[in-house]
Amino acid sequence: MDQKRPLTFTLFILRLFSGLVGGAAGTLALFIVYFLLNTVVPQADAEGPTSLAMFVVIIMTFVGTLVANTITGVMVTFMDNAKYFRRKTTILHIFIFNFILFFLTIPLYMLGASLDIVNGIAAVHFLLSAFISALIMEVIAGYEFSLLGIYSTALGMFVSIAIALAIMAAGVRPITIMFVAMPGVWFILQTVGGFAELIYDNFVKLYGVDFLNIQTDLGGDKEVESGEEEEDEEKEEE
């Protein structure tokens, strides 16, 4: 059974930095696209927002999420190369997934436009893209230790959603939320994931039970498999 690399405090800080930088890069890309398209695409007419305004939101969200997730993935794989050593494969899958998600969300944006909830669809788009991108990183990092990454990423996403709901309930301006959403979500994902990994490393060191390792037999599956193999061998001998 392979040994998991321990998460040091330095690696933990570097991963937090990667999440902040990647999220900030995505936010910057989002606003660059907005200002570029805003000069050529009419946002509203006498009857209200135009249909092209939804197109601007879709492109903004896609470019912002793609940049944020890709830059974060690149930085994390460089900073924590001992764990995320399959850098090219990780970045390629993040890139492919974000393209697929972009096309899948287009019908949702159209539905959102009819219900006047386009901004909510954009928020769901980014949260889902960040969540799955983080899961891709954890799964590719190592089959044996992917469960820890899946659990910690899921916990980080729930914390992100809870904080987002609290901010919305507090009446924070949407423009402020837009500025902090991408770096904030990735910072939370890396923070929760880092703390979960640190706690788990100390648990394994203290009790010697690596129960989130895929190869750890918690339910007696290997005993069942070995018993079935013995029965098959006996039948073949007969």
- Would you identify the regions where 5 or more consecutive residues have pLDDT less than 50? none
| Mass-distribution shape | elongated
The overall pLDDT average reads 82
In what order do the strands lie side by side in the largest sheet? Answer: 1-2
The protein's oligomeric status is single chain
Q: Helical content, roughly? A: over 70%
Q: How many structural domains can be distinguished in the coordinates? A: 1
**Structural class estimated from helices and strands:** mainly alpha
Largest sheet: 2 strands, antiparallel
Number of strands: 2
- Radius of gyration over C-alpha positions, nearest whole angstrom: 22 Å
Order of helices and strands: HEEHHHHHH
Q: How far apart are the termini? A: 35 Å
Roughly what fraction of the amino acids lie in strands?
Answer: under 5%
Explain what you see.
With 238 residues, this protein is mainly α. The protein has one domain (9-237). Helices cover 79% and strands 2% of the residues. It is built from seven helices and two strands, in the order H-E-E-H-H-H-H-H-H. The chain has helices at residues 9-38, 51-79, 87-115, 118-141, 146-169, 174-207, 221-237, and strands at residues 44-45, 48-49. A two-stranded antiparallel sheet has the order 1-2. The model has no long low-confidence stretch (mean pLDDT 82).
